[in-house]
Amino acid sequence: MTQHLTAQNGAPIADDQNSLTAGRRGPVGLQDWHLIEKLAHFNRERIPERVVHAKGSGAYGTFTLTQDLSRYTLAEHFNEVGKQTEVVVRFSTVGGEAGSADAERDPRGFAVRFYTKNGNHDIVGNNTPVFFLRDGIKFPDFIHTQKRNPITNLKDPQAMWDFWSLNPEALHQVTILMSDRGIPLNYRHMNGYGSHTFSLWNKQGERFWVKFHFKTQQGVRNLSNAEADTLKGIDPDHAQRDLYGAIEDGQAPKWTLYLQVMPERDADSYGINPFDLTKVWPHSDYPLIEAGVLELNRNPQNYFNEIEQAAFAPSNLVPGVGASPDKMLQARLFAYADAQRYRIGGNYNQLPVNCPHAAQPNHYQRAGAMAGGGCPYHGAQQESGVNYGPNTQQGPEQKPQYAEPPLAVEGNLDRFDRFEEENVEQAGNLYRLMSDTQRQALADTIAATLSQVTAPVQQRMLAQFAGADAEYAERVAQAIEAVRG
């Protein structure tokens, strides 16, 4: 007898694959209690390491603006050429535990915090411009497939490929992950991306959609499967060692920040959904605009205090930078900060690495675990009798001049069909950009694990590959036969 899916209170779930959104492109409605329950429970599944991005490395540095972006944004760190902003950056692998090897085939986290005069601005992205999913309601399920099987406690290729075969939106990112780009040489020799679409707005109230690209000045370099397997045995912490050593030796790694900027009015008529995290914006449509240089030049003095407790969150936004209707981003706006409250505590922003270095915290939030220290860069917050607003006791007041322009939304609040968007075209375009050697390496890497799963899953994946490019499917099928001998 088939069991029906329920929430934790036993209520049947009608749709577990689509968030409740206003119109087909969103935004997501806060009343989607099933989404909130899934994300909130997911954030509490591991103690004490991060649920994802558990193993990481980090350092401090500066961001120097090389082009004034005031025509797009009033964010102060993106105005005035030559301005320097203190930053902290954390790199990571996504799926592995805290003791896993740095050379695993896995996306890499690329999180940047700007300590701006108007608060902390975090860009919490990866080394890839896209992701496996476009809707955050699927994220807990996806990560379960990347972690250990609950019975065997082993990594589970069947779960991984079964999920991907039922979610064709993942094919673009799967193609990147299984390609030569899937194992960066180290953190210095890889790019970083905000991945999501964010918003910028200027003093005139004009909104622009934006994507952030950090291009390494060290050059992109990657590992083959054989090289990675050797490194995992010789030095599982090689990327951490490389980053720390380079900075100590005075070889400060650098990245150039570029932006892709889309006028707000373009979104409705553009050929793809600009808020779909599984898609890129072709540079021919929206060219890269150079913005500045990110440099890492100072190692932490205490790894746990400064990197392990660094609490990045996409919801750390500042005036001039905002979110977008991107469904994955909207889920992360809640999930990341909530995970940090659980992992570190409700007052995690009082820790030195998390408090705003260049801005005075001033709010009505009081009490909670570890309260009272205050931001060490500005001293303890005044503990007056007023912990509410508005008030007549000279408490901090809101600043309406920083309000984001209104976002027009339309459409029915509903859970829209997950197969509405096109899924395979950009994966096919990427495949056709590869050399013959790269295509074969991609097929061989896929076959190494896809050969271990059931025939129905293999057939669903081969159909996806064929939809992207017929040769793609043929190469993978031949590689599977070669593995079987």
UniProtKB/TrEMBL annotation:
Q: Which UniProt keywords apply?
A: Heme, Hydrogen peroxide, Iron, Metal-binding, Oxidoreductase, Peroxidase
Where does this protein hold heme?
Answer: Y336
One GO BP on record is: hydrogen peroxide catabolic process
For this protein, the Enzyme Commission number is 1.11.1.6
**Residue span of region Disordered:** 1-23
Is Metal-binding a UniProt keyword of this protein?
yes
Lineage top rank: taxon: Bacteria
Database matches in InterPro entries: Catalase, Catalase_3, Catalase_AS, Catalase_clade1/3, Catalase_core, Catalase_haem_BS, Catalase_immune_responsive, Catalase_sf
Q: Which cofactor does it need?
A: heme
Q: Where is the Catalase core domain?
A: 6-397
- Name the catalytic site residues: H53, N126
What Gene Ontology cellular component terms go with this record? cytoplasm
**UniProt xrefs under PROSITE patterns:** CATALASE_1 (PS00437), CATALASE_2 (PS00438), CATALASE_3 (PS51402)
Recorded GO MF terms: catalase activity; heme binding; metal ion binding
Q: What reaction gets catalysed by this protein?
A: 2 H2O2 = O2 + 2 H2O
Enzyme class, one word?
oxidoreductase
Give one Pfam family: Catalase
What family is this?
Belongs to the catalase family.
Q: What is this protein called?
A: Catalase
